[in-house]
Amino acid sequence: MELGMLIAKRIGLFLFLYFGLLILGHVAPVKSLISKTYNAIGNMATGSYRDGGTAKFRSLRPEELGRFKGFDSLVQLSSERQQEIAIEKAKAEGRNSAQISPVTYPVNSWVKLGMILSFFLALCLSTPISIKRKLIALALGCLSIFALVALQSFTAVGTKFARYYGELQAGFSDPMAVSAIRRVDNIIQYMGFSLLFAFIVWAVLCLPHINYHKYSKAKSS
Amino acid sequence: MTKNENGSVKSDSNLGSPNRSIGQKIKDLWAITVNRLLIQFVALIGLFYLLWSTPFFQSGFVKPLSEFYAWISGAILSLVGYPVKVIGDSITSEGIAINIKNGCDGIEALAIFWVGILIFPTIWKDKVSALVFGTLFLVILNIIRIVSLYWFRINIPSLFELMHVSVWQVLFIALTIACLLYWIGWTNKKNQLQWN
Questions:
Q1: For A208, which of B35, B108, B177 is closest by C-beta distance?
Q2: Which chain A residue has its CA at the smallest distance from B35's CA?
Q3: What pLDDT, in 10s, does the model give residues B12-27?
Q4: Residue B102 has pLDDT above 80, yes or no
């Protein structure tokens, strides 16, 4: 039962830390920071797309929160070609101004970023390794998670551009490229994949530094 | 730590001189057991996702599994006083429907568990018993998840999304990892594998 107690203690510590971070993550300043970080990563990864496509990640305005319940960020897709078409149409109709309707979809930044960071932080902090190792793991792990979020943003936006190619005429149009992006997107968008990714990053950065000898000696003493 | 063929172990903290070739460095990394297990784990999980993304796997394994979960959860809910109707992978009643979709089928957790069991170097008897009992545990855990989520959907709908996304997903993965670690410790102790 000693081994069971050892694992139970560490899992207990992990759950305590994770649920603590979960509660903290729903407090306004932290939630807003997560949202801003997510938007910044999204904009960096997808600011400009092929053939003049643009994607903009921003926080929902207070008046939009009712319409997009459960979400806090909005992604707006548009393109230079969409603008040109709108201007040509306005000129043909004798109007002085043109209107475009960007393609939009909402995102929950806590689910996409905050939860994964909380899971990873709780895993690292509950692992029996030195503080120095924990700090290194936290720094490298957070960067890895940001990279995953950037890739998720890229494939999500790419999939949307492909779906609305007729309207936006930007992004990938080659059927093989579109199929590849969709397949990757189908895999990496799921929460399960993100958690698994965070687990693997934790395993690579923390597991080799656990002093197993100390625990096997403790078990046998 | 690495295990020699005679069962004794050697410390692999000293990886030799800094003038080793890349091939030698890769060999030295591979010689460390934890590194080897991690590389095998990542490779097999990658293979799992390649297989998971195929229509064959989705229609041949994921869909029947989701329908099984819906059927058995529906049966339990009906037994405990929540009459429901099960249609495919959906549990419905009076305007409320829960679909067992990707993520709610527990397949990623099963993949973590199975891959961990298969790559860990121990006797096959222990692996088979872990695969059987561990899988049973995870299936029961997933049924508990689905039933509890339905309960929240009916009784405390404001907490449903929180429980569905932020609580149960992480709890499920955490318990899977705990199960795997416990089995590793158990099989180590049982077979008196030496880890110094």
A1: B35
A2: A208
A3: 544 555 677 888 877 8
A4: no
Kindly state whether B161 is in contact with chain A, defined as any CB-CB distance less than 8 angstroms: yes
3-class SS of residue A153: helix
Q: Token pair of B88, please? A: 């495919």
Residue B103 has pLDDT above 70, yes or no: yes
pLDDT at A216: 56
Cβ of residue B185 closer than 8 Å to a chain A Cβ: yes
**Considering only CA atoms, which of A197, A138, A142, A140 is closest in space to residue B42?**
A197
The 3-state DSSP class for residue B83 equals coil
A 141-180 → B contacts, CB under 8 A: none
Distance CA B115, CA A126 (A): 23
pLDDT of residue B8: 45
Q: A3 with B186: CB under 8 angstroms?
A: yes
Cα B93–B144–A108 angle (5° rounding)?
75
Chain B residues in contact with A200 (beta carbon < 8 A): 38, 41-42, 45
Banded pLDDT at B2 (limits 50, 70, 90): low
Distance from CA of A115 to the nearest CA of B (A): 7
Supply the angle between the helices B22-31 and B33-52 in degrees, to the nearest 10.
90
Kindly report the pTM of this predicted structure: 0.85
A187/B contact by beta carbon, under 8 A: yes
3 state DSSP class of A215: helix
Model confidence over B160-181: pLDDT tens digits? Answer: 988 998 999 999 999 999 999 8
Residues A196 and B183: their CA atoms lie apart, in Å, by 19
Q: Which of B36, B38, B41 is nearest to B26 (CA)?
A: B36
Q: What is the ipTM of this complex?
A: 0.80
Please give, rounded to a whole number of angstroms, the shortest distance from the CA of A117 to a CA of chain B. 12
How far apart are alpha carbons B38 and B32 in whole angstroms?
10
pLDDT of residue B193: 59
- Half-sphere exposure (Cβ direction) of B65: Cα atoms closer than 13 Å: 19
Structure tokens that stand for A112 in this block: 């996409």
Q: Are A219 and A136 in contact (CB under 8 A)?
A: no
Residue B71 CA to residue B59 CA, distance in Å, equals 17
Q: Is B49 on the interface with A (CB under 8 A)?
A: yes
- Residue A60 pLDDT more than 50? yes
- Selection from B193, B39, B1 nearest residue A203 by Cα: B39
